[in-house]
Amino acid sequence: MNKQVLKVEKRISADPVRLFRAWLNVEDFSRWFLSGEMIGIDSVAMDPRPGGKFLINMTLDGKILPHEGEYITIDEPRKIVFTWRSHATENKDTLVTVTFSEVKASSTSNGLNEKPQTLVTLVHEELENDIQIKMHSQGWTNILEGLNYWMS
């Protein structure tokens, strides 16, 4: 079976360092990492270092849905790579890469620089079918929207 790749991007008004750190700080992460309106966060545990593991217990309709993985690369402030396993991947490891690329600010007409902008690109590999692509596309899009909202 051909593995599939999902790519989601979001331009966010924040500098790359702040965005990068929001992915690795438990308290901050718990505030913005929501994949949909009906989804909540029960608990988050993370050991943000290569080889370190994380566990995100999401809630839906009173059920706890564990999402877990292992950090592979942590390259501040450019890139985080981790495995991702959940009910939505049929409990198989997949691979997620999140990159943070600074978008050069332009000067406004009054000569002041605009707020820093960062393009956050999330690539999710090793997905097995269209259902997994659709579920994760919606989830990751909502998560990046949550990050954007939290940063504003």
From TrEMBL:
Limits of the Activator of Hsp90 ATPase homologue 1/2-like C-terminal domain: 14-147
Pfam families recorded: AHSA1
SUPFAM superfamilies in the cross-refs: Bet v1-like
InterPro entries, per database record: ASHA1/2-like_C (IPR013538), START-like_dom_sf (IPR023393)
Family, per entry: Belongs to the AHA1 family.
Name of the protein described by the UniProt record: Activator of Hsp90 ATPase homologue 1/2-like C-terminal domain-containing protein
Organism of derivation: Leptospira terpstrae serovar Hualin str. LT 11-33 = ATCC 700639
